[in-house]
Amino acid sequence: MALPAKFLQWIGVAAIVGLCAAAVAGLTIVKQRIQVTISDEASPDAVDPVGLLRDDVSTLRSDFDRFGQNLGRELDRLATHLDESATGNQRVVSERLDRIEQRLLRLVERHAELAGRLDGISSLRVAPVTDGSSGLAVSDPAHARPDGSGADAVSPSAVSPNPESPNPESPRPVSPAAEKPKRGFLGFSLSTGGFQFDERQRFELIGKLSRVGFDSKSTLHDFTGATSAIRGHFEAALGKPEGGYRGTITVESAKLVTGVDGRDAEMRTLLRVEQHPQITFAVEAIDDATVDAEAMTVSGVARGTLSIAGKTQAVRWPVRIAVDSSRRLEISGELLIKLSDFGIKAPNQLGVITVEDEIKMWVALRARATGLARSQ
Q: Which CATH superfamily, name and number, covers 193-372?
């Protein structure tokens, strides 16, 4: 017997409603196991651009303060230099005037001496000699020479100069050169704390602009944990890695987050944050360094010790260091480690969801030079 068409329609509607109800129930169950996280970060090491801008403004303010301090100091030096230059010039001019005055006095004395000799020569008269020769006749015949020349006749070439007066044909005394000023006019510099690539400096990490984290894989899905709760410092001459690196980076292990509260709580238990609240990396040197002084970059392997959950291991961490336009250091690098090497057992939920023992740690740090290192 054929079923009525209307009855078949009702059966179809009931089937559709049942399928929808099953789908809703399934979605409700799956929702408890799946969490979707939406992030606008392009990469794990992305930082807040507003934070970068604030740090740039802070740097400019520091440079301006340093400029003001140096300006006042250099203007004081300029004023002192001008005073010294004026005093020195006045002394040189005074010495020259004294020498000129002494020379004028000697010239006056010489002039008087020559005038007296000229008067003596003018008193002589030229008279003819009876033997036909000519000569100089003196007014007093008793002093006449046998050759008819006067005993007091004086040849102009025979006039001897006054030994106390200077020889008019002797070279002039050379005046000592004026003392050159040590610095030229407005010859001062205003330092603004430029970056010293080859000098050994002390660097402080900028926590709010830095991130440290890890990437992990599991049978269900991959996940990432990260934090900006970072502090630390180190000393280095970037352009001379052979001089050694010394410093420590400290991460607050309790501040690592993955985005899932339950997973974060289990991670803190595995890390034993109550007993070991910090993850530290102590750097000792940069090996196999490649330095580009023009670009101000350094690539190499940071050698040091890594401490996690109370266990310390020697590691070699490939890193790259660069100086940005705001004179900040950008330090990046990745390192593969095994949790078991630090006494951490990889999480396992009912034998179904298992986290791999090997994870990738990464750093995206920014640091600021605070001055030359004390230990040169």
A: Lipid/polyisoprenoid-binding, YceI-like (2.40.128.110)
- pLDDT tens digits, one per residue of 357-376: 999 999 999 999 988 877 54
Buried b (16+ CB within 10 A) or exposed e, 56-89: eeeeeeeeeeeeeebeeebeeeeeebeeeeeeee
> Taking a C-beta distance cutoff of 8 angstroms, is the pair 87, 173 a contact?
no
Helix%, strand%, coil% for the chain, nearest 5: 35, 30, 35
**Predicted TM-score of the model (pTM):** 0.56
Percent of the chain with pLDDT over 90: 37
Q: Domain locations in the chain?
A: 70-158, 193-372
The pLDDT-based confidence of 166 (bands split at 50, 70, 90) is very low
Residue 96 φ/ψ region, left for φ over 0, alpha for ψ in the -120 to 50 degree band, beta for the rest: alpha
CA separation for the pair 149, 26 (Å, rounded): 155
